[in-house]
Amino acid sequence: MFASYESEFTRACIEANAQVDTLEQLLPGSERDTVRRQAESAVEAAADVVAQLEMEAGPAEKPRVRECKASLAQLRSKLSAARSSNRVAELQREELLRRSEEPQRMEAEQQHARLLETTSRLQRGTEKLRHACQVAIETEAVGASILTDLDQQRMTLEQTRERLRNANRGLAKSKKLLQTMTKRAWANKALMVGIIFFLMLMILAIIYLKWIWSPHPRSAPSPPPNL
């Protein structure tokens, strides 16, 4: 809780300083009064946060509370000086307007309007610059994320390429093995055909030797005896 209040105090101080800085730059007028009230309200908001810090602070946070009080005191002094300088400027402006002629008064008002327009342009430029910085930060984050994704994809592609190389090597080995097996199958088939052919020749030779061919010619039958 203390850290939350401390962050809130920091934001309140930043806002109050911005309002006081704007108040110091403005010439007397209705806009000056509006900015002065906003600056006073911002300083009081910072004071309320300091009161909350005192309630939530433990022994270890006391030095930080004292620092916040010192910052608040400086902020109030700055606001007081800005109001005083604006009041002096207002009196001087009124005196100048009383003594000046009509063309000089119109020129002063034109300068005031140009100053207000310049201040407004500066504020718009600051806002655009802040937005551009935010866009640049977001773009950088997106670019870093894209680079990370691309790196992961590159690693995945390299792993896939290595797997394909291994698969190609495996396919080459399988092809060689199939070719070797095919050659052996043809050799075995040729051997079996040769054995079968040899066996058929042997069978034919046995049949021929046993039934057809005889080494001794048959003797003629003897004539019957004469009576």
Characterization of this structure:
The protein has 227 residues and is mostly helical. The chain folds into 2 domains: 1-99, Methane Monooxygenase Hydroxylase, Chain G, domain 1; 102-179. 88% of the residues lie in helices and 0% in strands. The protein is built from 4 helices and no strands. The chain has helices at 2-25, 30-56, 62-99, 102-212. Helix 1 packs antiparallel against helix 2 (30-56). The protein is rod-shaped, with a radius of gyration of 55 Å. It starts with a helix and ends in a 15-residue tail after the last helix. Keywords: Coiled coil, Membrane, Protein transport, Transmembrane, Transmembrane helix, Transport. Its main location: membrane. GO terms for molecular function: SNAP receptor activity; SNARE binding.
